[in-house]
Design brief:
Layout (H helix, E strand, L loop, with lengths): L1 H11 L14 E10 L6 E10 L2 E7 L10 E4 L4 E4 L1 E6 L6 H10 L2 E6 L6 H11 L6 E4 L3 E2 L16 H14 L3 E5 L4 H6 L8 H13 L3 E5 L3 H9 L4 E3 L6 H10 L2 E3 L2 H5 L5 H14 L22 H7 L4 H15 L17 E4 L15 E4 L2 E5 L6 E3 L1
Length: 394
């Protein structure tokens, strides 16, 4: 029952009560020279974020927000505040899970979507973090991977065959407390480039997975890189496609209409761009990223180093994305993909108090996001090495 309750908390991430009602045990006022709102692209100067317990109580300028008597003040000087970052594709159990989780949080990623682990290790880590016995970001966990026998997700002999077996694996993950299902539809981009129709999971297996997941109220996120594989996953109701792939124009249009998210993971797939497949994939993704398809930031961390997640922004910029759009993908975009748009992604009244700061302007220089100086998750300060950061009572 304890594990189930923790899972439900992570899934909903919805405040149990208004942050401005009931007993207030702790109030923090964060002051900084600037605050960026990724949703609108606007910034405000002389910013104050008022935090009560786990939630944001008020956001505004120094002249508009009244700091209550006795509040703790955190003065970040010339820093820029923005919402906690979200990585929609990690594997925290690739490596030492506790170290990976801590490094990710300290890098400013206050929420992650973990898309596969053996033995439900990511579900256990999620619950340990939620219970306060481990330090890390808020975790939305897929449990294990589901893929065909002999395919790329046949880890430790876990691959299966046939619609009934795929549905059974969904039930297994649901019973273990998974927040969503990770389905492996295709292989990697090299195969997808040379064989656009290639798939590993059959159409019947894809359909069975999504149908069973819906019975349990779970989303399905698909690893798919080939044109046909992506199209089938979208057609049968996947809520997200992870990894860069060779999407065709019809699939892109359908994803726009149905708000199906793409998680590009450019760094892990195109980091050198010396091989023909990397070059072709990167060129294709330049067109995809400018198409208006819904985007959620993701890195496949575990394949790339944990805690270095923000390096993905450099690849997004090189692929032609505007800096603000890249930041949006890691805030409002990723929050939307995770179904947490009412709780995360912006600094606003009633949202979780996930606040990050850098010394400079991240829109002018995206590499600032690799050098965060302040991290608050759910009202708790986990990092503060800003230039000016006295903490005192008003």
């Amino acid at each position: 029952m304890k594990r189930l309750l923790a899972a439900l908390l992570v899934v909903s991430c919805a405040p149990a009560a208004s942050p401005t009602t009931g007993p207030i045990t702790h109030t923090i006022a964060i002051r900084a020279a600037h605050l960026l709102d990724p949703a609108t692209g606007r910034s405000i100067d002389s910013a104050i974020v008022l935090v009560r317990d786990r939630f944001i109580a008020e956001v505004g300028t120094a002249g508009a927000v009244r700091i209550p008597q006795g509040a703790e003040i955190i003065d970040l000087g010339q820093a820029t505040l923005f919402p906690g970052l979200i990585d929609a594709h990690v594997h925290l159990s690739l490596g030492r899970a506790d170290s990976a989780a801590r490094a990710t949080l300290l890098a400013g990623f206050t929420t992650v979507q973990d898309l596969g682990a053996l033995g439900q290790a990511n579900v256990r880590l999620r619950d340990a973090i939620a219970a306060g016995t481990s330090v890390g970001p808020r975790v939305v966990s897929a449990g294990s991977w589901i893929g065909v026998r002999g395919g790329i997700c046949d880890f430790d002999g876990r691959g299966v065959s046939g619609p009934d077996a795929f549905a059974a694996r969904v039930r297994e993950d649901a019973l273990a407390g998974a927040n969503l299902i990770k389905l492996c539809v295709t292989g990697w981009p090299a195969d997808a480039m040379s064989h656009p129709d290639s798939i590993e999971a059959s159409e019947a297996e894809i359909a069975a997975t999504v149908s069973e997941a819906r019975k349990h109220g779970l989303r399905v996120v698909a690893h798919a890189t080939s044109s046909r594989g992506i199209a089938l996953a979208v057609r049968h109701g996947a809520s997200g496609i992870v990894h860069s792939g060779f999407l065709d124009s019809a699939t892109i249009a359908e994803m726009r209409v149905r708000r199906i998210y793409l998680v590009p993971t450019l760094w892990s797939l195109t980091r050198r761009r010396t091989q023909p497949v990397e070059q072709a994939l990167f060129a294709h993704m330049r067109r995809v990223l400018s198409s208006g398809v819904p985007l959620a930031f993701g890195t496949d961390a575990g394949v790339i180093p944990h805690g270095r997640n923000a390096r993905e922004f450099t690849w997004m910029l090189e692929a032609g994305m505007r800096p603000l759009d890249a930041i949006r993908s890691a805030t409002v975009g990723a929050a939307g993909m995770l179904g947490l748009g009412d709780s995360l992604g912006v600094l606003a009244r009633g949202r979780y108090a996930d606040v990050v700061a850098v010394r400079g302007d991240p829109v002018a220089d995206l590499t600032e996001l690799e050098r965060v100086v302040f991290v608050m998750k759910g009202g708790a300060v986990v990092r503060n090495d800003a230039v000016a950061s006295p903490r005192y009572r008003e």
